[in-house]
Amino acid sequence: MDLAAPICVVGAGQSGILAAAKLRDLGFENIDILEAGAHLGGYCQTVEVDGDIYDFQSHLVIQQSFGADTAGTAIDELLRNHPVPTKTEALYFVGRSDSGKPQLAVPPHLLALFQTLTAEQTIDQLVAAWNIIERALRDRHGPGASGLAFDRVPGETWETYRARHAPLVGEVLQGLVIYANMRRPRQPAETVININAHISGHVSQLAKLVLSLYPAEKDALLARMPQSLVAQLTSHRPVSLSFREGFVSFLRRIADDHRLTVTVNSQVTGIEPVQPEGVRVTYTVDGEQRSAIYSRVVVTARPAQIREMFPEREIRELFAERNCPRRWTRSYLIRVREELISFPRRPDSAEPLGFWVIDPYGSYTDTDPEQAMHRITAANKQHPGPYWVCFSNSDTSISAAEAWSLAKDSLFLFHDPELVAETIAEWPAYPSAAAVRDGWFDHVTDIQGRDGVYFVGEILSGPTAECISSFVRDVIPAWFEPSNPA
């Protein structure tokens, strides 16, 4: 492919900036990036309070996977090439004690099950879940080019999945995926999971909690674990990274280092092949309609936007709402007077930052999907001080005030939290259960590159920066190597 051929990247969020940067690495000279918003960052948003910048929607940066540190990960490569100040964060499960007080604890959804098992049975079943995850990560099997599935049987639901596994194995895997927002209630097991991080960190955290429950048996229980799990228990790989100047500053650094220019306030309204010239992209800039012909186009938009851009029926149908239903998330920045539970403090940090998972499993059920709506399940401390960022699944059927009233009820970690800022954004919806059963991922793979149009984004790669960056690192060179005639 001609390195001077014009390429258009639609969207300047994580996927768009990373895709454009990888294209620049391959030597492409003529790259236009069109962003509908007023600045780059896309789904990522920030707010500044008291001199600190807090991230909304971009807190899931690293998360634990296998290995002692972040070496070898795509995000580590980006940070070495484009260094910006960061802080590491830790993950803690927080539940309620019998008296109702918050405590670091086994997630409440698993507590009753733990009470029916011996310490040895608990560890053995955690190990079984760990082995399934480790095999999935190693073999990278599952739907799509980089999706993963845990011991997948096509079309299987979570109910039948649990029926053929030991109780804790099914519950652990289901709970991890629910928390990872990679499935919705009643989806089949085969939808799990496009994510190469996040999951194993939860298993190691559970193993740590089990060991703390049985201190006298710690050595014997450790002896029952594979070396990879033992190593993960002492891993220094962070669950997440906090960017001192906000995640968007990291994207700006990457864009600047690669000499990328983003045209903001440019709403793409149409993408249509025009043979033999290439692909016509029609868009408006500050209300003025324009169009240009490109050799190839990389689309990083959400499904709702994609179906507005394409007159071609197959693409519109593939990303139709019945296949990719819209979902929403609300984020809140709150100020708290008092924290009812403290992080374990590290010797090298006066104020360790952390990511508290609040009743993560009890807040989601297969029998009552609405129970998850507007309930905060995680609180993220990105800077020392009284401010926290909280997250909840949501919708647009109620007012912002009503949503906050419901969310506040689930913040049992804090006395009377004060709302400072909030945002609601469309979550990059994942394919429906029916769509996955009908081969949705395979259909997307089949259309990649047709008429010079490619699709990249969270719906394909998963939500964390590590997932997005590793996906881009894999697919862009495969599609756009100058020697590749595709």
| Structural Rg | 22 Å
Number of helices: 17
Structural class of the helix and strand makeup? alpha/beta
Number of domains: 3
The CATH level-2 architecture of the largest domain is identified as 3-Layer(bba) Sandwich
Cα-to-Cα separation, first versus last residue: 8 Å
CATH class of the largest domain: Alpha Beta
Number of strands: 18
**What sort of overall outline do the alpha carbons produce when their principal axes are compared?**
globular
Most strands sheet: 8 strands, mixed
Average pLDDT number: 83
Q: What is the CATH homology-level superfamily of the largest domain? A: FAD/NAD(P)-binding domain
Taken as a percent bin, the fraction of beta residues is 15-25%
Descriptive notes:
With 486 residues, the protein is an alpha/beta fold. It has 3 domains: 7-43 and 248-324 and 430-480, FAD/NAD(P)-binding domain, CATH 3.50.50.60; 45-90 and 241-246 and 325-427; 108-224. Helices cover 34% and strands 22% of the residues. It is built from 17 helices and 18 strands. It has helices at 14-25, 74-81, 108-115, 119-139, 158-163, 167-179, 199-213, 218-223, 227-233, 247-257, 303-309, 313-318, 400-409, 433-437, 440-447, 458-461, 465-480, and strands spanning 7-10, 31-34, 45-49, 52-56, 86-96, 102-104, 240-243, 262-263, 266-274, 278-285, 288-294, 296-299, 327-335, 354-358, 376-381, 387-394, 418-427, 453-455. The strands form 4 sheets. Strands 5, 6, 7, 13, 14, 15, 16 and 17 form an 8-stranded mixed beta sheet that branches. A 5-stranded parallel beta sheet has the order 8-2-1-12-18, with helices on one face. Helix 1 packs across helix 17, helix 4 (119-139) crosses helix 6 and helix 7 (199-213) packs across helix 9. The longest helix is centred in the first third of the chain and has 21 residues, at 119-139. It starts with 6 loop residues before the first strand and ends in a 6-residue tail after the last helix. The model is unreliable at 179-183, 193-198 and 361-367 (pLDDT under 50).
